[in-house]
């Protein structure tokens, strides 16, 4: 009887999980094995042809390069900045509550609002960056229209948006540490830097793993900002994988390619999650 009761309690969550996670995943994989159908020409089974077409698409490899660079630019910087902010606001500083709120505010802003704020910063000639540059004799620059700078502009904006969110997890972890540890280290003559690297940072490694996983996942699902700021341009210089999937599905109406790209994205995220939870988790947690 208790087993039936337990299954009934799990049923609502299981139905939602299957309906909105497992079934769409399986349906997407099946769709990726069929051609793109139309009213005149129905879709037909093509096996792995869609995957071969994607692998021979130079735009796909450009998008993958952008996505990897975006992840490498945002994940370490967001984690480092979040840790620095958490350590700072965990101390007794004047206006600590206000500083914490200031750091966390970008996180609660809607993505569309954030994109429009930074669009004002990056607008040529009249934008905030060019206005500051003009004070020092600089000239206007099309930050989002230059393939050399557009991806870095997105990276800076994303770090600003996410660091405050990750700071909350570090701050919560710091507040669980016993103050006796710092007192003992001070009695032993350890400096603040030595205490941080030898005691505080190792104790924060489980939190760092959690933040690292979330930051990695976030770096692969940027869509809203691209839609407002660049639409993947110029010349796909800022096109990221999830936005490329959106383009194929809703701009080019090539649902077969979109399904194929989605399966590739899911496989990549699953592989990274397996590595993070099997390799890194064993090295981080205390057994």
What's this model, at a glance?
The chain is an all-alpha fold.
Provide the residue-averaged pLDDT.
Answer: 87
Low-confidence stretches: none
Main sheet record = none
**CA radius of gyration:** 23 Å
CATH topology: MetI-like fold
User: H/E order of the elements?
Assistant: HHHHHHHHHHHHH
Shape-level CATH architecture: Orthogonal Bundle
Distance N terminus to C terminus? 37 Å
Structural class: mainly alpha
Could you tell me the number of beta strands? 0
Report on this model:
With 287 residues, the protein is mainly alpha-helical. The chain has one domain: Orthogonal Bundle (MetI-like fold), CATH 1.10.3720.10. 73% of the residues lie in helices and 0% in strands. It contains 13 helices and no strands.
Helix and strand topology:
Blueprint lengths: L1 H30 L17 H7 L2 H32 L6 H13 L2 H12 L5 H8 L14 H25 L4 H9 L4 H12 L1 H15 L4 H6 L11 H11 L3 H30 L3
Helix pairs in contact: 1-13, 3-7, 3-10, 4-7, 7-10, 10-13, 12-13
Key features of this structure:
287 residues; mainly alpha; MetI-like fold; 13 helices; 0% strand
């Amino acid at each position: 009887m208790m087993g039936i009761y337990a299954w009934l309690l799990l049923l609502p969550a299981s139905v939602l999980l299957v309906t909105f996670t497992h079934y769409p995943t399986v349906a997407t994989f099946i769709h990726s094995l069929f051609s793109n159908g139309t009213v005149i020409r129905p879709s037909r089974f093509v096996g792995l042809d869609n995957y071969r077409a994607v692998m021979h698409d130079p735009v796909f490899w450009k998008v993958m390069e952008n996505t990897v660079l975006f992840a490498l630019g945002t994940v370490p910087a967001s984690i480092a900045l979040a840790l620095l902010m958490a350590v700072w606001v965990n101390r007794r500083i004047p206006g600590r509550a206000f500083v914490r709120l200031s750091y966390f505010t970008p996180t609660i802003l809607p993505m569309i609002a954030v994109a429009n704020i930074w669009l004002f910063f990056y607008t040529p000639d009249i934008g905030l960056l060019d206005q500051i540059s003009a004070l020092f004799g600089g000239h206007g620059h099309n930050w989002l229209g230059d393939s050399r700078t557009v991806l870095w502009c997105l990276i800076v904006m994303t770090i600003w948006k996410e660091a405050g969110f990750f700071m909350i997890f570090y701050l919560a972890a710091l507040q669980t540490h016993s103050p006796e540890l710092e007192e003992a280290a001070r009695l032993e003559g350890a400096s603040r830097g030595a205490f941080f690297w030898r005691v505080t940072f190792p104790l924060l490694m489980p939190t760092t793993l959690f933040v690292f996983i979330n930051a990695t996942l976030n770096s692969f699902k940027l869509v809203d900002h691209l839609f407002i700021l660049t639409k993947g341009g110029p010349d796909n210089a800022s096109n990221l994988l999830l936005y490329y999937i959106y383009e194929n599905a809703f701009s080019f109406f090539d649902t077969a390619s979109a399904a194929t790209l989605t399966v590739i994205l899911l496989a990549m995220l699953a592989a990274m999650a397996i590595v993070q939870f099997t390799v890194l988790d064993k090295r981080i947690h205390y057994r």
